[in-house]
Specification:
The protein is of the alpha+beta class. The chain contains 5 helices and 4 strands. Strand 2 (about 95-100) and strand 3 (about 110-115) form a beta hairpin.
């Protein structure tokens, strides 16, 4: 994929479906200034070319009772590829870990974690996170207020 392949209308389509994945084709076509059939063809091409990976619903943390968001800095004492692979596989299976990034700097990984409350978070840390393969230390930063979430990717 090369963003030089995207024209103004492709970019407008990507922006619109990123904001509302369930936008009806008729409204999408009107928004981007096309008739419905060419708009549907372009959307299909953008999907097939991999610009759109998937569609999904954004759930409400509040409605689900997940009041705590934490960013967890995970460190390893031993940097072994097999150990890191095991850690990553286990992280993928834990639903309350929303994201995991292998990073440079003082931490090896940064995780975004949700929990019902601080007691739930403490139990998760003690019983699950600290027990993951390779983990020698963890440091948490709790979100006090979410300013921006899942803003979507910039469409150049």
């Amino acid at each position: 994929m090369n963003d030089l392949e995207l024209d103004r209308i492709d970019r407008a389509i990507l922006s619109a479906v990123q904001a509302d994945g369930r936008i009806p084709n008729a409204r999408l076509a009107e928004t981007v200034g096309l008739s419905e059939t060419p708009c549907a063809r372009r959307l299909k091409r953008l999907e097939q070319e991999g610009y759109i990976e998937r569609y999904r619903a954004m759930l409400s943390r509040e409605a689900l009772g997940l009041g705590v968001v934490a960013f967890v800095y995970v460190r390893f004492a031993v940097h072994d590829r097999a150990l890191a692979d095991r850690f990553e596989r286990e992280v993928l299976a834990i639903a309350r870990i929303l994201s995991c990034h292998n990073v440079s700097g003082s931490a090896d990984y940064i995780l975004q974690v949700v929990a019902r409350d601080l007691d739930d978070y403490g139990t998760f840390m003690r019983d699950e996170l600290r027990c993951l393969p390779g983990v020698t230390s963890v440091e948490s930063s709790l979100s006090l207020r979410e300013v921006k979430a899942n803003g979507g990717l910039p469409v150049p």
